[in-house]
Input
Amino acid sequence: MAATTLSETGPAAALHFEIPGCSELLRDNDPTTFWQSDGTQPHFITLQFPQLTEVQTVALYLDYQQDESYTPKDLSIYAGHTTADLQKVLAYETEEPTGWVQLDLTEAHQGPLSLFTLRIMICSNHQFGKDCHVRQVKVFAPHRPLALDQLRYTSLEFKMASQIR
Output
């Protein structure tokens, strides 16, 4: 099943961080910029959606080659309606990642999750690092075909024009 990034088609999420004003670094599509945590572990990135949203995949751009001990190792994903009722839906361990790490939320739940709040928790880093770097975050919803996509052509003239040769 194809996925669609929520930043392109869905509701905008409000991002909450330990350091105010850093959310644009996670969404600028530039892998040379990064968000750096500050404070004690675990570190959190919390996304709050204005309406009930289906989420299929969370993708993080991590770069062990550049960040070394700042690279997240153990990640957990929490989902819920508010920050008060979050439940752990996925735990994942990375091994010196360079590039996109895709966390599929549908495997354990037989489909996408419906949520208002999504929290990415960084439990530990490589080489026992304290603070972490996350270069990009993308959240993907399942692809829903438009009603027009399901129309079947019946006339020969339309059938001939429905495909590219």
Notes: Helices lie at 6-9, 23-26, 64-67, 156-161. The chain has one domain: 3-161. The first helix runs from residue 6 to 9.
